[in-house]
Amino acid sequence: MTIKRYGAAGATGTGGQHLPFSRAVEAGGWLYISGQTPMTNGEVVEGGIVEQSRLAIQNCLDIMSEAGYELKDVVHVKVILTDARYFQSFNKVFSEFFTEHPPARICAVADLVVDCKVEVDITCYNAARINK
Fold it and tell me: Which of 11, 13, 18, 97 is the most buried (most CB within 10 A)?
């Protein structure tokens, strides 16, 4: 089985720091996307939970697309919110993206190491990509 790493070299976080992990790893038809926050060019985008949720999810989808995966390939999503009161607003945004193919999901409340309201990671599976 081949393991392919996306964004292992040159990934940057807040303040331009080098991140010591891949944005995603693909193995055996599975794609594991590292937790994505509402960042653009290594900086957190200001805004409320709705705006930050959209960007965190979109960042995951952009990585999926780069790797050749689609929304229908999403099997599991992990969500971390910094406040339980964000749950309903996050669900509305989540529903905008995952209407036709809803994945399994966990949502937890915890502090994040980045100063934002939400972090999202996605796991995908596509049998056609097993030998790619």
Answer: 97
User: 129 falls in which pLDDT band (50, 70, 90)?
Assistant: confident
Amino acid 8 reads A
Identity of residue 19:
L
The pLDDT tens digits of the residues spanning 104-123 come to 999 999 999 889 999 999 99
Tokens of 97: 């993206």
Write the DSSP symbol of residue 36. Answer: B
Helix axes 49-67, 87-97, angle to 10 degrees: 30
Measured distance CA(96)–CA(100) in Å, rounded: 10
Query: Can you list the alpha helix ranges (DSSP code H) found in the chain?
Result: 49-67, 87-97
Q: At residue 80, what is the residue type? A: I
pLDDT tens digit sequence for 78-103: 999 999 999 999 999 999 999 988 99
CB contact set of 62 (below 8 Å; sequence gap of 6+): none
Judging by beta carbons within 10 Å of its beta carbon (0-12, 13-18, 19+), is residue 125 exposed, middle or buried?
Answer: middle
